[in-house]
């Protein structure tokens, strides 16, 4: 007989916040993945400014789990709303 999986209860900590990001930078080393979230503001034709506001470290296992969840959710989004087109790296709204 297979035991029932544990019930997951989600709680928000006192410092929990939600933010909008249109820039994500990723750094990787042997032990973890580092995601830095920010907002892009193109101040002129020649300059794009990125205001980074949150960095998150993930274990390689959590990064791979996040990749799977994101792939699944993007596929569902595109099935409902159409293909997501990516802008060029030289325009605003890019992902690094």
Walkthrough of the structure:
This protein has 96 residues and is α+β, with helices and mostly antiparallel strands. The chain has a domain of 59 residues. 23% of the residues lie in helices and 28% in strands. A hairpin with a 4-residue loop joins strand 1 and strand 2. The mean pLDDT is 91.
Features:
single chain; 96 residues; alpha+beta; 3-stranded antiparallel beta sheet; 1 helix; 28% strand; extended
Summarize the structure.
This protein has 96 residues and is an alpha+beta fold. Helix content is 23%, strand content 28%. It has a domain at 23-81.
Structural class: alpha+beta
Beta fraction: 25-35%
**Average pLDDT, to the nearest integer?**
91
Low-confidence stretches: none
* Major sheet: arrangement of strands: 1-2-3
Secondary-structure element pattern, one letter each: EEEH
The biggest sheet, with number of strands, parallel, antiparallel or mixed sense and barrel status, is:
3 strands, antiparallel
Radius of gyration: 17 Å
In whole angstroms, how far apart are the ends? Answer: 47 Å
Number of strands: 3
Helix content: 10-25%
Q: What is the number of helices?
A: 1
From the spread of the alpha carbons, the general shape counts as extended
Strand and helix map with partners:
Layout: E1 23-28, E2 33-42, E3 48-58, H1 60-81
Antiparallel strand pairs: 1-2, 2-3
